[in-house]
Design brief:
Length: 311
């Protein structure tokens, strides 16, 4: 598999543009008149499989921590969801996250990643989907990497049936199920096939889970946020212990014409790549290119905790 060790500037900024457009523009710490100062840290424990190195300080050392509100017309479709949601997110540009022993990968949706003479996967991996995901995450290299220069970990109240939608209005001890997005962006996809982006063969990757009450956890939410006060500081702790099995979000009918991840309908570990087909226009000699987006899916246990606090 082709190994690209660098990402050119044009690709890097395209990645950022697509990622921010997908997530909706956040309220940046640097942009506010009186910026809210945030820190975050992973809570490492015995059976966690995602950890972070040290303390993350928003606006420092290539880290952003944002919170705010967004609206979406369609995905907040459970009882209590109004379409308005609150979010908190960590954006990491420096290698500082690491996965350990993330195994137990189950069925895959479309594991044939060699549809047009080229194979799609991750750098430094040779195994098939979904095991290439485990190889990519567990390759003993901190993330993000040169090929995936931005990781976004985002928690929102959207799609979890919450009547309360403001994370910042939570009181001490309050718990809300939340929607988690963990996204690894490599590059945009599109036609024609000689596009500098389409020539790259790396999958984009997203982990998507809506919090719910599975019996396997004794009725506790598998993705949730709890608000506490620790050492006099307001703290929001996200708890993730999921196998991506929320029964409300198991649609696998993905839109092959859209580059928007099916994050609102499918709780899965999703890859993304695109293939190109051409036809000749009825008049003239113009070539018409059609982009088809593919979303292989998988499931595996993911368990970690991360704290956000104002200081």
């Amino acid at each position: 598999m082709t190994k690209h060790r660098t990402l050119k500037a044009v690709g890097f900024f395209a990645v950022l543009a697509v990622a921010l457009a997908f997530l909706a523009l956040p309220n940046s710490q640097a942009g506010a008149k009186k910026p809210i100062r945030w820190k975050a840290a992973f809570v490492n424990f015995a059976d966690t499989n995602l950890t972070g190195s040290g303390e993350f300080v928003g606006g420092v050392d290539h880290v952003n921590i944002n919170n705010g509100f967004g609206t979406n017309d369609t995905p907040c479709n459970l009882a209590g969801d109004s379409g308005r949601y609150s979010y908190i997110e960590l954006q990491v540009f420096n290698p500082s996250l690491q996965f350990f022993n993330m195994g137990g990968f189950l069925s895959s949706g479309n594991d044939d990643l060699c549809l047009d003479g080229r194979c799609y996967g991750f750098p430094y991996t040779e195994t098939t989907w979904p095991f290439c995901v485990a190889d990519f995450l567990n390759n003993n290299n901190p993330h993000p990497t040169a090929e995936y220069p931005l990781i976004i970990l985002r928690f929102t109240t959207c799609g979890c049936g919450n009547f309360a939608t403001d994370l910042m209005a939570m009181k001490d001890g309050d718990i809300l199920p939340v929607h988690m997005l963990l996204q690894f962006f490599s590059h945009t996809w599109g036609c024609p096939p000689n596009s500098p982006f389409t020539q790259k063969t790396f999958l984009n990757l997203m982990m998507n889970a809506h919090g719910w009450n599975p019996l396997r956890l004794g009725g506790d939410f598998d993705v949730k946020i709890q608000r506490t006060t620790e050492n006099g500081l307001l703290t929001w702790t996200a708890y993730v212990d999921t196998v991506f099995d929320n029964q409300e979000y198991q649609s696998l009918d993905f839109d092959s014409t859209s580059a928007n991840f099916p994050a609102t309908t499918s709780d899965n570990i999703l890859g993304q790549y695109a293939t190109c087909d051409s036809t000749k226009a009825l008049k003239g000699n113009k070539t018409i290119w059609t982009t088809t987006y593919h979303y292989p899916w998988a499931k595996a246990p993911l368990k970690f905790q991360i704290k956000f606090w104002k200081y």
